[in-house]
Amino acid sequence: MPCHSKRLLLVAAFSALQFYSFAQDKAIYHQDWIDFNKNGKKDVYEDSKQPIASRVDDLLSQMTTQEKANQTVTLYGYGRVLKDEQPAAAWDKEIWKHGLANIDEMLNSLAYNKSAKSSFSYPFSRHAVALNNVQKWFIEHTRLGIPVDFTNEGIHGLNHDRATPLPAPINIGSTWNTKLVRTAGEIVGREAKYLGYTNVYAPILDVSRDPRWGRVVETYGENPFHIAEMGKQAVLGIQQNGIASTLKHYAVYSVPKGGRDGNARTDPHVGFREMHELHLYPFKRVVKEAKPLGIMSSYNDYDGVPVSSSKYFLQDLLRKDYGFEGYIVSDSEALEFISSKHHVATDYKDAIRQALEGGLNVRTNFDPPNTYLTPLMELIDEGGLDMNVLNQRVREVLTVKFKLGLFDHPLVDNTNLADQKVHTQADENISLQVNRESIVLLKNEQDLLPIDINKYKRILVTGPMAEATNYTTSRYGPSNNPITTIKDGIIAYAKDKALQVNYTKGVDVVDKNWPESEIIPTDLSNEEIESMTTGVRLGQESDLIIAVMGESEREVGESRSRSDLNLPGKQRDYLMKLKETRKPIILVLVNGRPLSINWENKYLPAIVESWFLSGQSGHVVADMLFGEYNPSGKLPISFPKSVGQIEMNFPTKPAAQAGQPGVGPNGWGNSRVVGFLYPFGYGLSYTDFQFSNLRLNKKQIRPTDSLTVTVDVQNIGKRKGAEVVQLYVKDVVSSVTTYEMDLRGFEKIELNPGEKKSIQFSILPVHLELLDQYNKWTVEPGRFEIFIGNSSANLPLRDSFDVVN
């Protein structure tokens, strides 16, 4: 078909969508207000000049019990629960004729769910029109016209067909670049706005303390201060577009017993003080400082009480202490788990009562809304739920909708702008920068990297992740974007450099007996021996081997915890055979969690941690290997040497990871391996940096004072590079046991060779407080030590100050 004809059909289709409406009375739309309840007059809730609290009170007073109940439930969008892509006549008989709290993932064409594929997801303007049509139906066909909140995921970039892709959150955490995270958040929020979404489920603030857990890849790392700083910027970026940011997963979700995920997402073994100082710290900071409008409650319990029905977590802490003013949505099926998994409710109806009384606002699950609304209405009719409780939960939902402007500007005004504002070239450039800055150089013996193309002309690319693609596309991020594999990225780079690149897979990610082979070793099969032999032969014919190893999306993610942290399958066996070629080997890791690569670290000269990059992974890795840019990523999570050391994290309590005396009254030799394989904050560069001239503006402060710390940083190498300056604080003597030291400041700076800059940090009272023996947050008098360097294990500068009454 000629392009001109295609354009005419496209315009016609858009026009048909634009004017497609179920309006019963067009007179409800006025110049500066909408007659949502169709009564011919401007009610208080329809008046934008009235205070939000007054508007909510007015609307609540007009709502029936059923309409209130409907504002506490999610409807999953097309291809999940909803069967229609656009409003249909049958909707007038559906339960949502009384309204809904939100519709999740509507028309986003998620690649992981073929039934959700929709022609309305792209072009982007077509999606904006389609959501406008759905919103118009709720405005025009429900009695009070209450708009819906269109929610969507966004931790890897917006979860929409061909939106701007971002790497996994563990990659984003590895950038240690708060300015870049703010920009990435702005992209997610902007794209959501122009596509018609009003609420983004991001960022994840879970603190990963057990690398066996499958969702480490979806977190920023293990340190609460680092997570809080990154998460705060993500929220500010998303919400600057007038879009809600919903934090995940509140609370104490990321440490299931033994790192076991799936049906064992309960029973986190975390002490009360540790819970507050580690797992709640990012939520507390981000809620107070960035004011997100949403929170997602988690599946798990804490100390026997399910979080999704806990008044302590949802009201006392979140609303009263932290000052949260948004609404709380359950993770899918978290409400049901109160009765079905935790067994603290007699039945589903009782679970609903407990959740609403506890403070949960909106129930989410992959089933029709009436499966929740029917027992909820029965509960109310039986007098099992106080109407004041329901009114308060609905009030909190409506308040967010008013704050988002859904009662003043419920529709995307100019739908055509979506094609100009979503996934622009500038956005793609930012994505490239995030990917590049997330790569961590773990080892570089004798400066093997960057690769000298004059020395290494014949290169073998091998390993199971060299041709992998699926890890670049998350169920929680964009779909259908172009993907360049690491193999193809290296071949493309070598094309104009007179380099010869060969490829063979060599080994699968896992063997046929995996995961049992992690505990019961098996011999190599004939097929494995043959495949490895081919790799060794090609390696012997090459000058350099690039081995791309790690984990695929099948070994990493939700419900995919592991019992071991070595390279899965027979990958190490293959590396051992490749080493026999005596050719230099660069190990490129593609993985979603720390791996205990002890043999690899000891015997291979160069190791690169790339985590789960997005679709540009091949070009990003190739450019780094050949020196087109200088790696600057730092580990946001430490690597243990063995599963037997877990939990082994930073920060750590005194002597919690102590060695063994070996000699003396309590020493009879050594019986265990100690120490980190790679510590928190660690990452190498192609250049070197020097820290000097640490100075404090005060040596003595009061508990309410701030302190300024300044340090000079110089690039003493021969290449331009970026360094992450890290500041750690130690409370020398305290009334309760504190951590040996903890991160309390960091900044990423770029320096030319020889360039020097002064970096300034502010130490605030909140950075020094502890939860004392009376469970009160306080800054205690005493001495504090300051350490500055480029990782938790490399801190060349040190000073101290005193806090006095």
TrEMBL record:
Pfam families attached to this UniProt entry: Fn3-like, Glyco_hydro_3, Glyco_hydro_3_C
Domain Fibronectin type III-like: 723-792
Coiled-coil intervals: none
InterPro entries found in the cross-reference section: Cellulose_deg_GH3, Fn3-like, GH, Glyco_hydro_3_C, Glyco_hydro_3_C_sf, Glyco_hydro_3_N, Glyco_hydro_3_N_sf, Ig-like_fold
Superkingdom per UniProt: Bacteria
Annotated SUPFAM superfamilies: (Trans)glycosidases, Beta-D-glucan exohydrolase, C-terminal domain
Gene Ontology molecular function terms on file: beta-glucosidase activity
Keywords for this protein: Hydrolase, Signal
Name under which the protein is recorded: Glycosyl hydrolase
Signal peptide per UniProt: 1-23
Annotated PANTHER family: BETA-GLUCOSIDASE
Similarity field: Belongs to the glycosyl hydrolase 3 family.
Biological process according to GO: carbohydrate metabolic process
Record carries keyword Signal: yes
